[in-house]
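Bench log. Compound arrived from synthesis this morning; before running ITC I wanted a structural hypothesis for how A2G sits in the protein. Inputs:
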Amino acid sequence: AASTVALVSPDSLFDFSSKIDKVRVGLVGCGMRGQVHLDELLKRNDVEVVAIAEPDQRMIDRCNKIFAKHNKKPVTYFKGLDGYKKLYSDKKIHAVVISTPWEFHEEQTIAAMNAGKIVGLEVCGAMNLQECWNYVDTYEKTKVPVFMMENVCYRRDIMAVMNMVRKGIFGQILHGQGGYQHDLRNVLFNDGVKAYGGGVEFGEKGFSEAAWRTNHYVKRNGELYPTHGLGPIGTMMDVNRGNRITHITSMASKQAGLTDYIVKNGGADHPNAKVEFKLGDIVQTMLKCENGETILLTHDTSLQRPYNLGFRLQGTDGIWQDIGSGGFSQGFIYFEDEMKHSHKWASSEDHLKTYDHPYWKKYEAQAEGAGHGGMDFFLMNDFIECIKQNKEFPFDVYDLATWYAVTPLSEKSIEGNGSSQEMPDFTRGKYKTRKPVFGAEDYG
Ligand code: A2G
């Protein structure tokens, strides 16, 4: 059943003394990702975008076009890397959406909580384990809620499978897989002018994600982007809500894909051809849950490949495997009783249509045209509706800490030749009594 747990407790630093009908939002970071959020927010009449902190004038120009498209006047922009601090001092703002380079998430999120602003935080993994505890400790001190903005949880096929899991169609769940399997070579490198491709520059000579994301590939070897896989699978397994991840182990292949790409597109003499990228092309991480399930995550972004997050969910009564990007027919399914022990896959289409989640059916029309096949509508809708209705976020600070923690733990495991790493219980025992909320039939 839908949760009745309040989003904001009475002792919160967030002032919830009067009911909120119109949520006043500030955007921290309005690059390519923030602009998708801006577009979604400007469509809604229960939201007012109050201010934007964005240091790059090229991104501000793009934001201005989005305001113009919605016939709205641009708002105040705070420039400079510290612009977010000025934005947080605006008393009018209820909530902020943070879509900045990964290395800024910690300071910007903690400062927002301390300023009494509800946070929607974009996906990535933590820089170190302490970061994860800092989110939890600051939440417990301020009681200012954080929404972990994992959009793939809202993918239509995922929500249909989630619905089937909740109804027990797969029987007992034993194993799940997912990951981030997306050829990012033209995201990681560009010509410094366009956001995607056209050159092999990164860092100071790169633009958009190439200006910062690629640096993580130079310096780190681990599961850098765990949440697109772990969000959906962890939610299906009730992680932090009756279950928890106990330990993890990771292994990485060698690196070759990025250097190969630089040589082929920029020539063997290009200085970047000599860069030693630390990140292995394929990083695999196994996670073990207290209730007995295993999860396999794969990070695969440096080689040519079609997009596919590689979901698989397996139980005593059936199995689902995705091979596409969210369409109902882009997957396989097998239930031996129904399929007369054929040992052959069937298209997932009929089953996913039958179990299409009511949340999707309800908002299908509004989600049309929203980012990533519509799921970005549902993500933002939950953020705003939970605030308006004072209803707990489906993915909260404990999920943020756990999902983000996979990154530093996997780095350590790889360094130790696959050594086992303990996942802390960020809930400090509360996982035993916290109830699952996401995906129930009356959800949303
Ligand atoms: O590529 C996709 O949009 C990713 N999202 C997003 O997380 C980011 O990595 C982006 C790169 O520009 C999904 O795959 C859902």
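What the model suggests: Residues 397-415 form the longest helix (19 residues). The first strand starts at residue 23 and ends at 28.
ITC booked for Thursday regardless.
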